[in-house]
Amino acid sequence: MKYSKQRESILRALAEKLDHPTAEMVYQAVKLEQPNISLGTIYRNLNQLAEQGMLRRISTPVSGDRFDIRTAPHAHLLCTCCGRMLDLEEDLLDAIDQKVLDTAGFQVQDHQLLLSGTCSCCMAQSRRDVS
Amino acid sequence: MKYSKQRESILRALAEKLDHPTAEMVYQAVKLEQPNISLGTIYRNLNQLAEQGMLRRISTPVSGDRFDIRTAPHAHLLCTCCGRMLDLEEDLLDAIDQKVLDTAGFQVQDHQLLLSGTCSCCMAQSRRDVS
DNA sequence: AACAAAACAGGAATAATAACTATATTTAGA
DNA sequence: TCTAAATATAGTTATTATTCCTGTTTTGTT
């Protein structure tokens, strides 16, 4: 894979934005540095980088896919109230893989644990609204 | 919600096809009974039924969403080799929810655990191919 | 039976993403 | 350092999944 300043910007944007941006969000962020980058370049790079394991793709039932610079498997929390996506430190995952192999004979290569619900901010907010 | 024979066919198709079909697959199946059902009807019904909690939507990084008549939360296994989606009986989920609430203050409403990898059939197949 | 509410078919519209093409940039080697 | 091949890019067009719209049909109620 050859160097390009576009890809460098994309990686930098992902490193800075830890909120699991969509392709469009990455595009908007990178555009500040590279004003005439094309959206196709964003998608091509995100796909390549995901394939190389340099970032991971998270698909949600909501809208477009999201991308995450952390490559180690971990779980995601999607707040149905404010739409933010948070991380959850998770040590359970390896144990789950082993259990799946034992019980179902299925060799896990990747997992995607997406929990949707209400984040603590939104819970606090709604408590405030009621009272 | 009013009765319609289209929706009845959709539900029957889902009950028979336990392989988590996409909307398109449901369309093809239902078309055998209702030859001029429209794809819009499939989507409208799948969305309504999912909203009512009568079925669940599973989003994958691969292509279109899939639908599942089992409403109880359970995990899914997506084989990257043959593309089939399997179920995994899973009692861990409730425990995970509680842990998430304790550690992150996040109230889980729904989870989607998607494990991708190689199913036992494909593993057996590849062993056969090698030898 | 008559009417309102909901559902439908068919097609047009949208949104996310991928594919194409001609030009530009990078990099290894002479 | 220069050059040529490989790869990347911008900009555009195409594809795919899904939703929206409109006029018609079905369903449930009085």
Write a structural description.
The structure is a homodimer of 131-residue chains. The termini of chain A are far apart. Chain A has helices at residues 5-16, 23-31, 39-51, 92-104, 120-130; strands at 56-58, 66-68, 75-79, 85-88, 107-118. In chain A, 28% of the residues are buried. Chain A is α+β, with helices and mostly antiparallel strands and 131 residues long. Chain A folds into 2 domains: 1-70, Arc Repressor Mutant, subunit A; 72-131, 2-Layer Sandwich (Dna Ligase, domain 1), CATH 3.30.1490.190. In chain A, helix 1 packs across helix 2 (23-31) and helix 2 (23-31) crosses helix 3. In chain A, strand 3 and strand 4 form a beta hairpin. In chain A, 44% of the residues lie in helices and 21% in strands. Strand 5 of chain A pairs antiparallel with strand 5 of chain B, so a sheet runs across the interface. Chain A binds a DNA duplex (30 and 30 nucleotides) through residues 1-7, 22-24, 36-41, 43-45, 47, 63-65.
